[in-house]
Amino acid sequence: MPSAAATGRGPAAADGRMEEAEEEDGGRGATGSPVASAAASDRFVRCLYAVGFLDLFGVSIVVPLMNLHIKSLGASHTVAGIIGSLYGIMQLFSSPLVGCWSDVVGRRYSLLACILLSALGYFLLGTSTTVFLFAISRVPVGIFKHTLSISKALLSDLVSEKDRPLVMGRFNAASSVGFILGPVVGGYLTELEDGFYQTSFICASIFLLNAGLVWMLPWSEENSGRREHQQGNKGIDSAKAVHDLHSKSATNGAVASNSLFRSPWAQVATVLTRIKGIACSDLWDIFLVRLLMSVAILLYYSNFTLALDERFGVKPLFAGYLMSYSSALGVLAGCLLGPITRLYQHNTYRILLHSSTFTCTLILLYASALSIWMVVLSSTFLAFSTTIGRTCIIDLELTIGGNEASGTLLGVGQSVTSVGRIVAPLLSGIAQEFSPCGPPSLGVGLALVAILIMHANKQKYCSHGNVKPKTQ
Description:
Growth Hormone, Chain: A, disordered C terminus, disordered N terminus, 472 residues, mainly alpha, transmembrane helix, 2 domains, transmembrane
């Protein structure tokens, strides 16, 4: 059975310049010392942490101000909501397409294209003096703002399965730090004259800076480091592994290079074929678990500020501090994934099951809380369980679905989360008609269903990759 993207092409992380890099260094990537390869991999990973930080830092300085800006342009609440929904719909459909495209043409060029086109969107946002121009500026961002997903796919290509949860957790932590600092900087800048327009241009400049960083990344080190990590994943003779992986990497690099210059129609056909392979796969239960847990967490936060006011008389300022506190703890949780995975002996399924069960229990505690301190307690531990759960579900998708189509898998997973963002507000509104505790109570039920699905498919999750998509 072929894996999730068995279309005759290697993973997109083997970008088109691999052969050139191998020729320049005389094949040292395949024959160099493991210590040197590991050091090259670590340098590349640290650079990607900086890419993730700059990405969310740039976004977070402008996104919290957008609702205020569109209202200042004369848009009604309904129009503002429609534009926001259109952005979510574009993300929903573009996520798997862009993710799969990164598998076809290579991570480097797809990541650069997404960053530059996102920069264009934020530049247009800085020139939006009417509601129509505001809506137009959201189009390139809605379609191409998948830079974090492609970065995660690149990380999954580079590191071993054993190290992937740790690296993903640190990447999420670095990105979250940017999201924590960004609103503070954006709030300060918006106080200036024409503050929103200046903030938008600064955001576009940050994306251009990020594009320059991606362009200057040590891609030859990435190739060398990836080969070393791939070798570590194989339980075969060392000398044979080096030779086979060197040959395979060179072949994949040539294919990715050729894919970049293929006709657009050929690239579209390849993308659609790969997405069809995912759609016809046996991964539906993993994506369903991701959807249910995403909706459950979104229901928890959907009426958080309003519910605290109605239940405990807590002012919005306190709720804001509590959410910022939770975000900071989420960063810490990302850094603790290494010790946690070692404690569980790198069993991602068990970590996900336990974190999901813990999340369900904490949401239930919040829904039945009798004092504000019980809410603070649940928020404290929920920051850890949700961060760990998000990282583990991505790792499980890549482990079972096959790392050859990491971009496609992450794109489809992002679309699943987008569906949750569309469905959750509707469910929250209906549940809130009955009680302020209605949304989190519904979230508890959805989380329980996700836990039952994980129990029912325990054998599949523990088999680590025996489940593959059907032939395409």
